[in-house]
Q: What sequence folds into this?
């Protein structure tokens, strides 16, 4: 998602951002919500990876993708913000 000027979300204190880890990028068209949800229903909440989702959404509408995806996983789901550090075991859209 396009970063905006809102406050950067808090990274949970128990997540170590100092180590190297894979970052998995997943893209989908506007109809990809079901695929995102199915993916996160099957991903273990502690995988040692971070997931960055890119979805084709109408830029004139506010997105609730973060809230929707949070129902599909126990890992934190955050909207990407400018200059945000991405920790493992997190999903960013």
A:
């Amino acid at each position: 998602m396009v970063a905006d000027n809102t406050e950067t979300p808090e990274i949970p204190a128990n997540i170590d951002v100092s180590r190297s880890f894979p970052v998995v990028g997943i893209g989908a068209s506007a109809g990809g919500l079901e695929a995102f949800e199915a993916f996160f229903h099957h991903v273990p909440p502690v995988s040692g990876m971070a997931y960055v989702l890119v979805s084709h959404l109408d830029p004139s509408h506010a997105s609730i993708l973060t809230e929707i995806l949070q129902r599909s996983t126990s890992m934190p789901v955050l909207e990407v913000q400018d200059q945000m550090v991405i920790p493992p075991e997190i999903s960013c859209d």
User: Anything to note?
Assistant: The chain has a mean pLDDT of 78. The first strand starts at residue 23 and ends at 28. Residues 29-92 form one domain. The radius of gyration is 13 Å.
